[in-house]
Amino acid sequence: xxxxxxxxxxxxxxxxxxxxxxxxxxxxxxxxxxxxxxxxxxxxxxxxxxxxxxxxxxxxxxxxxxxxxxxxxxxxxxxxxxxxxxxxxxxxxxxxxxxxxxxxxxxxxxxxxxxxxxxxxxxxxxxxxxxxxxxxxxxxxxxxxxxxxxxxxxxxxxxxxxxxxxxxxxxxxxxxxxxxxxxxxxxxxxxxxxxxxxxxxxxxxxxxxxxxxxxxxxxxxxxxxxxxxxxxxxxxxxxxxxxxxxxxxxxxxxxxxxxxxxxxxxxxxxxxxxxxxxxxxxxxxxxxxxxxxxxxxxxxxxxxxxxxxxxxxxxxxxxxxxxxxxxxxxxxxxxxxxxxxxxxxxxxxxxxxxxxxxxxxxxxxxxxxxxxxxxxxxxxxxxxxxxxxxxxxxxxxxxxxxxxxxxxxxxxxxxxxxxxxxxxxxxxxxxxxxxxxxxxxxxxxxxxxxxxxxxxxxxxxxxxxxxxxxxxxxxxxxxxxxxxxxxxxxxxxxxxxxxxxxxxxxxxxxxxxxxxxxxxxxxxxxxxxxxxxxxxxxxxxxxxxxxxxxxxxxxxxxxxxxxxxxxxxxxxxxxxxxxxxxxxxxxxxxxxxxxxxxxxxxxxxxxxxxxxxxxxxxxxxxxxxxxxxxxxxxxxxxxxxxxxxxxxxxxxxxxxxxxxxxxxxxxxxxxxxxxxxxxxxxxxxxxxxxxxxxxxxxxxx
Length: 701
What we know:
By secondary structure, the protein is an alpha+beta fold. It contains 20 helices and 21 strands.
């Protein structure tokens, strides 16, 4: 848990506007006083002589003093918006384009012109589709009949099209199936004596309102079918890319498509010109397939902690990535060391699949977790309730069903204050046990470093401990409902000079957090290299400030999850140890990062701007020189980029001694969106201070 401290001055001094207006008071006298009569008093003559010298002249105003304020200083600053990169990607208005979601070349796909040929040569292919079985369920047959119903704008048809529909109903369906269709969709009971031929005519004319127009060309009206042979990977990409959006777009323009998975065929049913258009468009789309060789086994091996096994079998890992990225993995020969060919529509999806592969490996060798049950009754008396807000979960966790252990609600129960009715059973023995688990040093096979700084932090996070129904998987979700109102009662951590700044200065701090994992094949160390995090402050335009960089390695990350089902939330106790691998810019601005040329090159190449109108670029690899214990010279280690988080942090104070970080965290489509409340102990960690810290936080909640 990293306490965040801004290096910028986030507090603008209050400015005041003092406007001095020159009030010119001029006495105007009646015209009669300007005569030369002796009746005019001497005092008045003197005043008039002074006025005559300036009469008819415009007096210059005194110089007004203006103080120009920016919107924030004037107290009218706008609420800062979420950067475009981290906003949920709501789909734009549906476009009637079959090429949507596909990266294509410069050539345009043009709609083919009408052909004078009636596509009689594919009639044999159409008949191959009409293979029917007597064992087909009635519901399936009824739905199939309804699919043949012409749309509202195609009920007027040529005679050939009318005869085609009539023949399909006669050849493909039995009399009982047609009667069932009429009963279900039109609530009409058919007389037993009605023949199949008359029933078909009734369906076409009375129910479907079909009309024959001899002026309509059968070329544009006749429905034909064509079978297109494709590769297995092509079918997969068409079905999975944007959830089958490409095939759905074909359906929206009037074509009916069926996919024969076992035979690697796509069956298109539409008018002649439209069938031709679909065929040409499909070929154009499939021509843009990109393919690349990927050594999956090597990547997994080089990013798995020493002495550990992968988090899941490679086959399950690949299946998970395929669903998320719409990339097809094709296994090469067993003796080929390169592993797989990956195929996708465009290079962007291939790059995403590579990134998701590193993400799914969940490289965290420094992390250790344990669970402590603190219910006020036996665990068997609680029940698992489903957790449905998957938008706050990582993409690797969204395909599972999650539950939280809770106390069953009793009808007509008397609602009591939680603080009075709940007992967490925090005895001194339990606190001793928690202290030993968090503070006692243990070997976690992490390499030791000669670092610039070494920091230990102790904190508690509110959240919900979730597990699957069989208990094989668990996770901690820090999202808490209705906590903001309680937090807003706390004072700011940094005291404000005056109350007016609460309304004129944004009290939040804004950061981006880049996460990397090491490529263990690039180091000679026999121990694990910890993951790397790069923290940047954001300016007012949501661009990372390079000089604010903090590069940290997590040497240790111990978590104890306190399950409290009698409360609306659980607790996570965290003790971590971090080291910084680069000096702050303020300490040595002239030779900053001279000992880390790889990091300097990374900052030079990166474009860390997160507004939607600007292009974001994060280099995929970063080289760091690490000062490992036992090595005389720094050892270069390559790190691979995994993900980025956006953090909007408000720092509060609890009991005049604890730092409270109220964070709004957004990680894009992969990491989800949630708020997080962290209580951080700012005192030296002892058994006594630890016990007081835990009790104080429990008392707050």
